[in-house]
Specification:
single chain, globular, 2 domains, about 15% helix, alpha+beta
Length: about 250
């Protein structure tokens, strides 16, 4: 990165990305056991791929975004998720799906994007953001809330977000990066793009308004975090005090 799926920010243009997407046709189709759906929108497009891997369904969403004032590629994003089929809706006959976190097969499939690999490859991030979604007292029907850990590398043009299921232990919210879905965004570091705007634009759960820097939301410094989580054998989770996350 910031090269992603063969596209290089600062070199590849939006026309090349559009041609890549158009080869699949717009809509959904099946190629063997692989389902592919291509889509276009005002300033970009993308391809979604779903395939079975052992007992889970892996979903990859790749998108590109064009600069509004030129034909230049401005952003590339990839989302990596694991799902499982629980059954079939009797009325619509569509599958009933549930998210899977921490699956061994998923982590093996995307080992290069796991937190230890990113830290080992790109070094200590410029910023790490934590987001723990508090309970919504108006929504007792919600069974689970997200926990997000985001890494920002402005000089390399990289943003990585790990979204896990938030857990509660005592007076802390807990999030485990090894049990996460992974979302990445890359941009040309030579562009004058503010990383805060990137976070607000492409973050799945993280926004600058709902997140807190790591050293303010946990007991770790940025360097301590780096030294702990670059170890591939580490199973430590992130802990943050519940009182930092009052219901909105």
């Amino acid at each position: 990165m910031p090269c992603l799926w063969g596209f290089v920010l600062g070199e590849s243009d939006a026309e090349a990305a559009s041609t890549f997407v158009d080869q699949f046709g717009i809509g959904d189709f099946r190629f063997g056991d692989i389902e592919i759906g291509a889509h276009n929108y005002d300033n970009g497009g993308g391809v979604g791929i779903a395939y079975s891997k052992e007992h889970i369904i892996i979903i990859i969403d790749w998108s590109y975004y064009q600069n509004e004032e030129s034909s230049k590629l401005e952003l590339l994003t990839v989302g990596l998720r694991a799902m499982e089929k629980l059954g079939t809706d009797l009325i619509t006959q569509s599958p009933i799906m549930s998210q899977v976190f921490g699956d061994v097969t998923f982590n093996q499939e995307f080992q290069d994007y796991l937190l230890p690999s990113i830290l080992d490859t790109y070094g200590q991030p410029f910023q790490v953001l934590v987001m723990a979604r508090p309970d919504d007292p108006q929504r007792p029907d919600i069974q689970g809330y997200p926990f997000s850990l985001s890494l920002v590398y402005p000089e390399q043009g990289i943003f990585v977000e790990y979204v896990s299921r938030r857990e509660t232990v005592g007076n802390h919210f807990i999030g485990c990066p090894e049990k996460s879905h992974i979302y990445l965004a890359t941009w040309d570091p030579h562009d004058n793009l503010y990383w805060e705007n990137i976070v607000n634009r492409v973050g799945v759960e993280t926004r600058m308004s709902n997140s807190i820097p790591l050293d303010e939301s946990t007991s770790m410094t940025l360097n301590e975090f780096y030294e702990i989580f670059k170890n591939p054998d580490n199973t430590t989770c992130i802990e943050t005090p519940i009182d930092l996350w009052p219901p909105q």
